Amino acid sequence: MEFWQLKCFSAVARSLNFSRAAETLYISQSALSQQIQSLEQELGTPLFNRSKRSVSLTPAGTALQRHIPGIDSALLQAESAVRAACAQSGQAVQLTLGIDEGFSDCRVIQGRLSDILIDLQMANARLQVKIRDIPYAHLERLLITGDIDMGFALMPEKDSSHIKFHSKKLVSTAVYRDDLQLIVADRLLGPDRPADIRALLDLYPLLVPKSDERILTHILRIMSSLDITPRLEYVETQLESRLVAEAGMGLILGPLNTALASVNNMTCIPFNVPEANMEYCALYSTENEKEIIRAICAALVH
Predict the structure, then answer these.
(1) How far apart are CA 218 and CA 43, in angstroms?
(2) Are residues 183 and 273 in the same domain?
(3) Which terminal CB of the chain, N or C, has fewer other CB atoms within 10 Å?
(4) CATH number of the domain enclosing 47
């Protein structure tokens, strides 16, 4: 179980309404339902009774809800640590964040990170936060040199603790996990056109940003697990890949929340294989002694 899954469960358990719970978490209702389904699959039992008119807790859901106060307490402790980290210094504190394009697309994490930064600045008016858009290829170097304090990136590895950095000074903390989808322009789907992944990839190229070898390696790993050899077409950036895909000139892969947040008139088709996931990670150098960095990581994870 992950803290984010439990927080999603807590929101639904309190309101017994998926739509209202999704609004409080700043995510789509489908994304919330996906988190609840993943938690139910992991636990091996339904947590909610669902009907068109109502939502209620199952006995297993009621049992889990009894432990929610402890989870909420842990979240409050993390938020307190954030405030304490800022308040301990009367001098101006500069915090520079580098955000990769893939990370910045996820509205779930953007909302949570924004709330944390607002709390930080309310706790310490002298805190100066700078946010820079930085491609992942440059994040590691800037973290090591100290030009940025934290980096945020979309990582293809299933377990972020196994990420191999060029420097042993860097550590990574997974703050959110999302499933990859094949994203298809609606115009490519219809009564006489295929709606399954294999057939679509036979007909149309898969658009891949040439600037990110990590993503390409992960895509090929997923395709290999499905015994599919896609026809790859390289583009300069992730933004270009989305624009080309929207025009119906190719297919793209993307996390569910990213896909829903940034692409219109598109259909998302799940892969339903264990390899098809991405993690949103916070990165920092072990040599950076700013306690505020650890506090931000703790608050994001909770």
Answers:
(1) 28
(2) yes
(3) N
(4) 1.10.10.10
Cβ-contact 35, 22 below 8 angstroms: no
Look up the domain containing 28 and give its range: 3-66
- Residue that finishes a domain, picked among 30, 51, 66: 66
236-290 pLDDT tens trace: 777 788 788 888 899 988 877 665 545 568 888 888 787 788 888 889 888 887 8
Cα separation, 158 vs 153, whole angstroms: 14
pTM: 0.60
- Residues 232, 208 contacting (CB under 8 angstroms): yes
Identify whether the C-beta of residue 205 lies closer than 8 Å to the C-beta of residue 192.
Answer: no
Mean pLDDT to the nearest integer, 71-75: 61
Position of tokens 């998926």? 18
For the chain, how many residues are written? 302
Residue 103 lies in a domain: yes
Structural Rg of the chain based on CA atoms: 20
Q: String of b and e for 138-167 (b: at least 16 CB within 10 Å)?
A: ebbebbbeeebbbbbbbbbbbebeebeeee
Residue 74 lies in a domain: no
Q: Which residue has the tokens 């115009």?
A: 187
Domain count across the chain: 3
Query: For residue 213, which phi and psi values (nearest 5 degrees)?
Result: -70, -25
C-alpha dihedral sign at 275, 35, 300, 101: positive
**How far apart, in whole angstroms, are the C-alpha atoms of residue 109 and residue 175?**
8
Strands 127-133 and 170-185 come out as unpaired
Residue at 147 is within a domain: yes
The answer to whether residue 214 sits within a structural domain is yes
